[in-house]
Write a structure and sequence with these properties.
One of its GO terms (biological process) is defense response. The protein is built from 16 helices and 17 strands. By secondary structure, it is an alpha+beta fold. The chain folds into two domains: about 180 residues, Rossmann fold (3-Layer(aba) Sandwich); about 250 residues, no CATH class. It has a seven-stranded antiparallel β-sheet. It has a six-stranded antiparallel β-sheet with strand order 13-12-11-8-15-16. Helix 4 packs antiparallel against helix 5, helix 4 runs parallel beside helix 6 and helix 9 packs across helix 10.
């Protein structure tokens, strides 16, 4: 596709008076974009320069060459909450002064984030929590291993080209993309506070960046238990537990020990597949005791109607359970599929809409069961769709299990006495995404959808009325600590 470079790029350039608070023209810099009509598609770009091997750094350089350097940010240097807080404060100040250009930028602004699913989730969490006056929609560039978020919205799952024509082609797609809301899911974990040592992190517990210790506990929180510690956060794609998370944990552990071996996406995917074999995922019935199966680990409850909890039966053979928001898992597969009319009628199941306030709960026995996803209509064991789901872990034969949020795994200790570890997932508002017109994700509000359901927001539920509970905490807790290697978010 041919472009007239300067005319095309003007659609995305943002005036320096927006990017630099207090900017003046005393330096005689010509700001070609400073007119009342404003750019058609102003963008702010966030790049994880450590994702994708050298690709992240190369992509950062290309975006800065094509756009203004001050509208392209390296997430290794500045956190997105600080960037957006600064720019939106400036936009609002200019808007109050009657600046029409600033008003147009607020209305049209779009964000681009390049990195793995963890990086994309970081930015989504920040936008969600900052409660901006006009939250911008977000496009995701696939620079990770799984790239489930980009794939679900039509941006692909392979690492993109980093040269100028490739980046300009992507910008053209961003300008033509449609907006789509997706559900946010709040996750709250309660476990016994340690008698000694720090609470965040609890050694040797290494939680994902989106799940953090929360010291104040609201009285409105029904899981409030004296002597326990609360962790909370959010996710947009999935929460999983069991064998799949164990393989992912092995992969991340290996990459942490030998980062030099994980510079190529194809090599990463090949290593992931090998670990699936060595971890016994293909021979789980022989190598893993039944005590590791989900039904033996946890009691599971779901809420289909507000205020009404019911037990969820988990078949004894299920070794991995996935709570899925988007139709993309493990590199682009759709574990839920599309239930036929009989299933929709008899079991009250629907297709996996991304904005219906429901999360799909799917189970797998082993890797052979997972291979059914390669078939045109393959799917896992559909367990339920729910507005909330709660896992209650009591003392069992094993002292740990593995969990994963949007690609980030951890090894979760289980009770060793009469304590309980509880994990609850609940609907928590929505965030705006950018999607191509042929993306896999489907909205309940799309006229082409075959079945419409009433989306219902639980964020005002009586159990979550306090500000402490309702916030993701993204502006603070989603800020990745300095000691965390950003490459692990890919």
């Amino acid at each position: 596709m041919a472009f007239s470079d300067s005319n095309f790029l003007k659609n995305f350039w943002i005036s320096n008076k927006i990017l630099v608070p207090g900017f003046g023209f005393e330096n005689n810099e010509i700001d070609y974009e400073d007119d009342n009509d404003g750019p058609e598609c102003p963008v702010l770009v966030f790049v994880n320069s450590r994702s994708g091997g050298q690709l992240g750094g190369n992509l950062l350089k290309t975006y800065r060459a094509l756009l203004k350097e001050k509208q392209v940010f390296d997430l290794g240097e500045e956190a997105p909450d600080k960037v957006l807080s600064r720019i939106y404060a400036n936009l609002e100040n200019l808007k109050l002064k009657g600046d029409e250009y600033a008003q147009k930028v607020i209305e049209r602004l779009r964000l681009i984030v390049a990195g793995g699913d963890g990086t994309a989730g970081w930015l989504l969490g920040v936008v969600c929590d900052l409660k901006l006056s006009h939250p911008p929609p977000i496009a995701t560039v696939p620079l990770g291993t799984g790239n489930n978020l980009p794939f679900a919205f039509g941006w692909g799952k392979k690492n993109p080209g980093t040269d100028e024509p490739s980046v300009m082609s992507f910008l053209d797609q961003v300008m033509k993309a449609k907006e789509m809301k997706i559900d946010n899911w709040h996750i709250l974990m309660r476990m016994r506070a340690p008698k000694e040592g720090l609470c965040d992190p609890i050694a040797p517990l290494e939680l994902p960046h989106s799940l953090h210790a929360f010291h104040r506990v609201s009285e409105a929180d029904e899981l409030n238990v004296e002597g326990c510690h609360t962790f909370r956060g959010g996710f947009w794609n999935y929460f999983s537990m069991g064998m799949d998370a164990q393989v992912s944990y092995a992969f991340h552990s290996e990459r942490k020990l030998h980062p030099e071996k994980f510079k190529n996406q194809l090599v990463n995917q090949s290593t992931y597949a090998k670990l699936g074999c060595t971890q016994g995922w293909f021979f789980a019935h022989l190598l893993h005791p039944p005590s590791s199966n989900i039904a033996h680990l946890a009691k599971v409850k779901i809420m289909k109607r507000r205020g009404h909890w019911e037990d969820l039966h988990i078949p004894s053979s299920i070794r991995s359970i996935i709570c899925l928001n988007l139709p993309s898992f493990s590199g682009g597969f759709n574990p839920w599929g599309t239930p036929n009319k009989d299933k929709q009628r008899d079991r009250d199941l629907t297709p996996p809409y991304v904005d219906d306030g429901l999360i799909e709960i799917v189970g797998f026995r082993d890797a052979w069961h997972g291979l059914v996803l390669l078939a045109p209509n393959g799917h896992g064991t559909r367990l339920a769709q729910a507005k909330r789901i709660r896992f209650e872990f009591h003392k069992v034969a094993t002292d740990h299990t593995f969990m994963r949020i949007d690609g980030e795994p951890w090894k979760q200790p289980l009770p060793i006495d009469d304590d309980t570890v509880e994990v609850e997932i609940s609907h928590h508002g929505q965030v705006n995404m950018l999607a191509t017109h042929d993306c896999k994700s489907r909205s309940v509000y799309d006229p082409s959808s075959v079945h419409l359901v009433d989306a219902e927001d639980d964020s005002d539920d009586e159990d979550s009325i306090s500000d402490e509970f309702r916030k993701f905490g993204a502006a603070n807790t989603f800020k990745i600590p300095d000691e965390v290697d950003h490459a692990h978010l890919s």
